[in-house]
Amino acid sequence: MRAVKISTSTTTAGRPGRALRIAMIGQRGLPATYGGIEHHVAQLGRRLAARGHDVTVYCRGNYSGERRDRLDGIRLRHLPTIGTKHMEALTHSLTSTLAAAGRHDIVHYHALGPGLFAPVPRYLTGSRVVQTIHGWDDLRAKWGGLAQRVLRAGRWMSRRVPNAVIGVSREITDEYGEAATYISNGVERPPDDISPEPVLARGLRPGGYILFVGRLVPEKAVDLLLRTFSRLPGDVRLAVAGGSAYTDAYVAGLRELAARDPRIHLLGYVYGDDLAALYHHAAVYVQPSHLEGLPLALLEAASHGLPLVASGLGCHREIIAAEGPGGRIFRPGDPAGLREALAHVLADRERERAGALTRRDDVLRRYSWDRATDLTEELYLRLAR
């Protein structure tokens, strides 16, 4: 597959060469609640629609209780799926592909599994196919041997079938070499004044808790975080905002760990203004994962000026850039390193917060949804020509 090169200096915001018909396939749906891909699609989709493009997002019928026809200028199509761990994404991607066939200029797949059906629009219709790689799904611990082999097939096909591949981190595009285009996730600057009421309502004190946000899956290493936190002295709390993603056994183990320490708060999924308040009033944000693409939660935490503690994955280092006040790195899977990093941040909160506020400006400059939309739109237009 030949890479499609795009410039990094020319934008087409508000001036598209032509209005495109764009299909998004692979996300669970909109409105976005949990899930980084869903938020990614929501941010890109509404901006592309505002620029005059006809954007259709294919939604799983079991994702949200809301079944709108349109949202922020985006057309929503709700299709049924088989709501099981192994079949949900694949069946919905297949039905979405068949529904989209021949109707769109661009068919944009998100993640490895949905891209298994990219040959249909690529070779049987006049559509151009784009695939965004958000992470290495074939390495996720929740998948058994057969599912991993299917996803590895998707990874193999992602190098050969799409007209263009996008990686959300440098770590991903380095794996693909010149065959991929780097277009990162983005983040928006939050308001400076966010009410602490949602924090207080959950039994937490502003500035008195460590925060983690994300799906409760093994690769996020939340069990490591809970065990390590329990060895930290003091009255600081740990707030975990997230829930199961077909990982009920893993979540049950987390509940057992949390029951041993009354300072641990398992909050379930938290959305919208309540989630913004949790970010805004935390003392430090922790991302202990041993597998990620480019976590939106870490970007969101940085946008609120939070000190960050993250495992030393390449994508985390991209965001933190240089270790120091406001950004601490520990070796993935190392409880002693995680404990030391947390203790370091909590021991000098003023210095760490000052460093985090400086880092916030850098993150907001480097990770922009408007810029991501500019580059994605330019890629679409080049393919369509």
Automatic annotation (TrEMBL):
GO terms for molecular function: glycosyltransferase activity. Signal peptide: none annotated. The keyword tRNA processing does not apply. It comes from the Bacteria. The keyword Glycosyltransferase applies. InterPro entries: Glyco_trans_4-like_N. Keywords: Glycosyltransferase, Transferase. Residues 34-187 form the Glycosyltransferase subfamily 4-like N-terminal domain. Coiled coil: none annotated. PANTHER family: BLL3647 PROTEIN, GLYCOSYLTRANSFERASE. This is Glycosyl transferase. It comes from Acrocarpospora phusangensis. The lineage of its organism: Bacteria, Bacillati, Actinomycetota, Actinomycetes, Streptosporangiales.
